[in-house]
Amino acid sequence: MRKPYAFTLIFMIISPAFSIGILTTPLYANSNIVEEQTNNNGVTKWTIMVYLDADNNLDTYGVLNLQQIYAGLNPGANVNVVVLLDRLNEEAWLYDIKNRTNESLGELDMGSWETLRDFVVNVTRDFKSDYYMLILWDHGLGWPGICWDDTNSNSTYQSYISPTNLTKALTEAYEQTGKKVNIVGFDACLMGMIEICYELKNVTDIVIGSEMLIPGYGWPYKEFMEYISNNPQVDPKTLSEAIVTQYVEYYSRIKPNFLVQLSAIDTSKIDKMSLNLNETSAYLAGNVESMRGLITGARSASQQKFILGTMGVIFYVDLYKFADLLQKRTDDPILRDLASNLTKSIDDMVFAENHTRPQGNLDEKQFGLTVYFPANRQTFIFKYPDYVPNFAVDTGWYNFLRAYCRIS
Known about the structure:
Blueprint: E1 2-3, H1 8-14, H2 33-38, E2 44-54, H3 59-72, E3 79-87, E4 92-96, E5 101-106, H4 113-126, E6 129-137, H5 163-177, E7 181-187, H6 194-199, E8 204-209, E9 214-215, H7 221-230, H8 236-254, E10 261-266, H9 270-286, H10 292-302, E11 303-309, E12 312-318, H11 319-329, H12 333-349, E13 350-355, H13 360-363, E14 370-372, H14 384-387, H15 389-394, H16 397-404
Parallel strand pairs: 1-9, 2-3, 2-6, 6-7, 7-8
Antiparallel strand pairs: 3-4, 4-5, 8-10, 10-13, 11-12, 12-14
């Protein structure tokens, strides 16, 4: 999900950059974006792809963020920015921000993984760059998925992209083009989860996401575009660090009472973490009854969010905090070593993390990644491994959850 605010529309109407009618008619004379780019033999350093699914109650925020992208990007910079925007009750438009061109694509189902795959395939084929970044913009629920499309949903069917289908889209895009997406960024709530990073570990180098809710305003795109315009030679890690810093600084300035958080994760370090998590999970599962009080206390103290979704209440805890509390509170030397190794591997993965600090008790809970952790059998969601099958099997976490929730 994403936290909307009613007064944003007023800001957009009076914005000097564009009028609110920006997307009902073309911004510039219509042109064939693909033809223009294939005739250009130059290779830019970066191509930023923004998959902007505003076909829901975030519609007006999509307009705001597109305005910010246009306002911030210097067209002369050695950077391509391509935005696919689908609004509620509007057709989808493809925007080449650098060249100030656009074209209508008709109605698209942004909750379809094939739409995402085709977007990535076409952009990476037609915009030649050293590095590629994909930003997924919309509601997010964490492991249940992202990118809900209201136009293509009804009372019996919800159009959205699950983690397995997100991985499928990027896998097929790579197979068709040979171009890897170097950074996947989530401008959506709750996507800073270890499950998401694990499912994406073979299709991207870096994942940027938040443990918390993302405000309706989203990422500060004007500042982001200004940074990449002025620093087109930046490497993926440095760019990711800048995005994390800019995001928190932005909300500290405009909404200092908001609690926001963002992390950048190096997926090349996930396999080591997976081994440590597997060992810790197995040990906890084998001793779950004798350690139940310890586990429950650590779980409660590290809980970040619980969300009421279509599948019920979904609980998330900060994985580092949970392991750290186990390490500090246990008298068992084996568990102490296992939990210590797990925290070290998480710390190694999360190379950038920042958050605002308006509420002191939450300050100690944010270390970069959450994990699904139901409170009991009644809140256990049996469909969980269908959404993140690789993580559920490889890490042993699912087996631990079943043992903790007393599910045979």
